[in-house]
Design goal:
Layout: E1 3-13, E2 18-27, E3 30-35, E4 43-47, E5 52-55, E6 57-62, H1 75-84, E7 87-92, H2 103-116, E8 120-123, H3 139-145, H4 160-173, E9 177-179, H5 184-187, E10 192-193, H6 196-201, E11 205-206, H7 208-225, E12 229-231, H8 237-248, E13 253-257, H9 259-263, H10 285-297, E14 302-303, H11 312-315, H12 332-341, H13 348-355, H14 357-363, E15 378-388, E16 407-417, E17 420-424
Parallel strand pairs: 1-4, 1-5, 6-7, 7-8, 9-12, 10-11, 12-13, 13-14
Antiparallel strand pairs: 1-2, 2-3, 5-15, 15-16, 16-17
Helix pairs in contact: 2-3, 4-7, 7-8, 8-10
Bound molecules: (4S)-2,6-dioxohexahydropyrimidine-4-carboxylic acid (DOR).
């Protein structure tokens, strides 16, 4: 296996607190040396002068659509979009067809990933069979096969008794439970956040309370069972307050926030533009401010894209008929840099933590740090480069992004997975 020497980058590693210009030598897929002025023979060199060099980013919330919906995305295309966004590792949600509710499907995804993916792929298993919310899925055997968490994602478990049992099992298998917190009875029929813009557009609203009641329920169940509970794409002020409170009480509760909820509000949606339609929906300016505060204060543990590809044929219908979801792998870093770092809200170190050690800690992954002996996964980005996102040039098979045509400051430059430069700008 060739050696890779990354030279002269500003190396930032939240796990060790390192922030200095230096070099990284990777051999056999592992970091073998770090420091200033490294020399080695027979290496592939990468000049990272003027760039930031960090642990390979981890996106813990991605929809790869394979098996079953390969017209929207595949493990291969999704992984290519991931590395073009700076993500060396991605976790894929189980809402495929068949649902990943069984070790056979988990193994299938891993086998496909080994053959075609350019990023590390970690499957997330379902909580219930077919994510139907009734019978528990085979949690133990999925974990043994390689699942890193369980979630019914877009079809959250409504029955609290089932969720309690799931958390008890998850606790005994030591696997985190990720919940897309949404009371489907409260949100039924809704197409966007319930607020003034939804009234103006004459669209049915999804109230903040549909998220809040489920976050409250799950925190109570996590407390009762001792399970590790993670809130997916947290989007409301009240939910954030509850997670903060749970953390103060030292409960095993974590949360992620998505770049689009940080950058956009319900008022930003051009009328009936389905590239702004996702669940949870874009919320109010007050919610958006709360998420940023949660990132500044340390309550938020990770940034995750909820990359949810849908083909144009499905997104170009009447707004109410369009599926929920937007792609986000290739814009996540730029959107986050702009919203949080260039705006002066947080330093680079904190942002990188949200993309690396944060998700690694939640999922127990041996990744997300730069150290001798650690996997040779590296993300290299230029925080200043100006570029314009053209969704038609995306590596994803789908085009459903609200950021098409937007000019950003800051861009991924190269992604290294197990010592191999799998993408460069
Ligand atoms: O907007 C969303 N799209 N939210 C989800 O929870 C599911 C996802 C999808 O699978 O399309």
């Amino acid at each position: 296996m060739p050696k890779l020497l990354i030279k002269n980058g500003r190396v930032i590693d939240p796990a060790s607190g390192r922030d200095e210009v230096g070099d990284i030598l990777i051999k056999g897929g592992l970091i073998v040396r770090m420091g200033p002025n490294l020399h080695a023979t027979g290496v592939i060199g990468f000049d990272a002068s003027g760039m930031v060099v960090t642990p390979g980013f981890i996106d813990m919330h991605v929809h790869l659509r394979e098996p079953g919906f390969e017209h929207a995305e595949t493990i291969e295309s999704g992984s290519r979009a991931a590395v073009a966004g700076g993500f060396a590792s991605i976790c894929c949600m189980p809402n495929t067809s068949p649902v990943n509710d069984d070790a056979t499907v988990t193994r299938y995804i891993l086998e496909r990933a080994r053959n075609v993916a350019v990023a590390n792929v970690y499957p997330i298993g379902a909580i219930t069979e077919d994510s139907a919310g009734e019978k528990l899925a085979s949690i133990g055997s999925m974990k043994a096969a390689g699942a890193v968490a369980i979630s019914d994602d877009g079809r959250p478990v409504m029955n609290s008794r089932v969720m309690r049992r799931a958390m008890e099992y998850a606790r005994s298998f030591d696997i985190p439970v990720i919940d897309h917190c949404e009371d489907l009875n409260l949100s039924a029929g809704g197409d966007m956040h319930e607020g003034f813009p939804s009234v103006r557009l004459g669209l049915h609203g999804i109230p903040s309370s549909s998220e809040d009641v489920m976050v409250a329920r799950d925190i109570l169940l996590a407390e009762a069972t001792g399970a590790r509970f993670h809130v997916a794409h947290l989007s409301t002020r009240r939910s954030l307050e509850m997670v903060a409170q749970a953390k103060t009480r030292r409960l095993p509760v974590t949360c992620e926030v998505s770049p689009h909820h940080l950058a956009l509000t319900d008022a930003d949606m051009p009328a009936y533009d389905s590239n702004y339609k996702m669940r949870p929906p874009l919320r109010s300016a007050s919610d958006q401010a709360a998420l940023v505060e949660g990132i500044v204060s340390g309550v938020v543990d990770a940034i995750a894209t909820d990359h949810a590809p849908h083909p144009g044929s499905e997104k170009m219908q009447e707004f109410e008929k369009c599926p929920f979801g937007i792609i986000g792998l290739e814009t996540a870093l730029a959107v986050t840099l702009e919203t949080l770092v260039h705006s002066g809200r947080i330093p680079l170190m904190r942002m990188i933590e949200l993309f690396t050690t944060g998700p690694a800690r939640i999922l127990g992954l041996n990744r997300g740090r730069l150290a001798v002996g650690a996997p040779g996964d590296v993300t290299i980005f230029d925080p200043e480069l100006r570029w314009t996102y053209d969704v038609n040039r995306s590596f994803s098979k789908s085009r459903n992004s609200p950021f098409d045509g937007r000019t950003f400051r800051g861009a991924p430059m190269a992604t290294v997975v197990r010592g191999v430069v799998v993408w460069r700008r």
